[in-house]
Amino acid sequence: xxxxxxxxxxxxxxxxxxxxxxxxxxxxxxxxxxxxxxxxxxxxxxxxxxxxxxxxxxxxxxxxxxxxxxxxxxxxxxxxxxxxxxxxxxxxxxxxxxxxxxxxxxxxxxxxxxxxxxxxxxxxxxxxxxxxxxxxxxxxxxxxxxxxxxxxxxxxxxxxxxxxxxxxxxxxxxxxxxxxxxxxxxxxxxxxxxxxxxxxxxxxxxxxxxxxxxxxxxxxxxxxxxxxxxxxxxxxxxxxxxxxxxxxxxxxxxxxxxxxxxxxxxxxxxxxxxxxxxxxxxxxxxxxxxxxxxxxxxxxxxxxxxxxxxxxxxxxxxxxxxxxxxxxxxxxxxxxxxxxxxxxxxxxxxxxxxxxxxxxxxxxxxxxxxxxxxxxxxxxxxxxxxxxxxxxxxxxxxxxxxxxxxxxxxxxxxxxxxxxxxxxxxxxxxxxxxxxxxxxxxxxxxxxxxxxxxxxxxxxxxxxxxxxxxxxxxxxxxxxxxxxxxxxxxxxxxxxxxxxxxxxxxxxxxxxxxxxxxxxxxxxxxxxxxxxxxxxxxxxxxxxxxxxxxxxxxxxxxx
DNA sequence: GCCGTTTTCGGCCCGACTGTTTTCAGTCG
Length: 559
Description:
Elements: H1 3-19, H2 24-38, H3 60-72, H4 76-83, H5 87-92, H6 100-108, H7 115-123, H8 135-150, E1 155-156, H9 157-178, E2 183-187, H10 188-191, E3 196-197, E4 199-206, H11 209-215, E5 225-227, E6 230-234, E7 240-247, H12 251-259, H13 262-272, H14 280-286, H15 302-307, E8 322-326, H16 337-347, E9 352-355, H17 370-387, E10 391-399, H18 410-413, E11 418-422, H19 431-443, E12 449-450, H20 468-477, E13 481-485, H21 498-503, E14 508-511, H22 523-533, H23 546-556
Parallel strand pairs: 4-7, 8-9, 9-10, 10-11, 11-12, 12-13, 13-14
Antiparallel strand pairs: 1-3, 2-4, 5-6, 6-7
The structure holds one DNA strand.
């Protein structure tokens, strides 16, 4: 069992204990153990069982719970408390903006036991009757439920990627048994590398179309049902899959048709005619267009650009020379500064690491006060001597405070090589306030990069509203780079605004926001959306070489 | 339930903000 699973189990246990009003200090210790387990730099399953209670925050009681989890995969105490809690009440824990205390009131005093009932009660204006609830809370719960319902059956790209790849391999092997010359390809949102996937589409082109169709329901990894020209299935987790089986001669046209969005496909085919086509390249060339990568087929401006032969050369993961905006054990990271640096140097073959631990206001994350900033800089200087020519840049993820100011005085700010400014608190501002707040941070001469501009968490939280054009224009005017936060939950700046930023000559940066060494790999997801946005390597800050980015930081810093 | 001793039990506690209150509780990163 992974630490993450153990941590999640402990979190659920602590939340349920709160719902059942158990001893608050017991609850706290379980919640604390969740937090600690989540931040461990080693796997609990590799640790001798009698040493678990030596870990800080884990005593005899919690150690025995973890042993039970590791050995049986279950926790009796959790099962018992789950039995005493309606399923719908447990589901409410996933609604952003309400915690166990409010759910307790909803359940016990209003008698509401499911999210559906809760939504109904909001519409009936019944929530305001309860103590501690008012009109605003009711409205907020209502919109949080709507956001959650809209996420049903939808998944992050990163959530389905592993499953999709495995399925594709299994399907390829299975198909080859019937027709070893069959053609297979992903289509739809997955091939376009959309950040959210509603449905996984795969196209099979074969000369044995009847044999494939007859046997597909026996393809064991899925329970497929024949539908209109396709086979469909929904996994237990609610993920929809659609397989299209087509004549091999029609494969490339079908693959193309099922990949791009409707408008893109219609516009290209209007230019290309009806084929037949030997491959996708031929479709575009017959349409008088240069080849358009699948990620771009969204009917933005890609057809006009292809017509004028002005499509950007899309950035690739291999173009990245370094990684900016990452955390270490100095704040809330799991691995030490040296471990993070060594991983970039040895495993990822990068030239530099930008370390951006949290600033002092982020107390919950061990944010660095002025003395610790100084201490970290000393360690960086030492490591830079040791690791040369690899370079660690002194960065900080400075909170943007409610009034838009940064978290340190200019005297401290000027000691950094670069500053990522981002919002972590007071996320519920309206558009005017949130925009003004960001504008002030962008205009600060020490701001190098605007971090996750909207604070959104895909499928979970909308993020505060901002006036994108004003923000991007201000970044252009103040030479501030905008982050593409590569965490698959964020992917913020949204790719739909990359083009506008690039038109305004704003640089973008694919930042993993890594809190452990494995986190660097999220840059893969950042690259996928950056490609959708039309980013080329020369417009990406962390595709700059060490020399180039050093010069860039030096030119940006006020004297 | 954990910790740190005062080796047997008492103390554990982020701060800002918001919405609900009329002085504070819940939630968040």
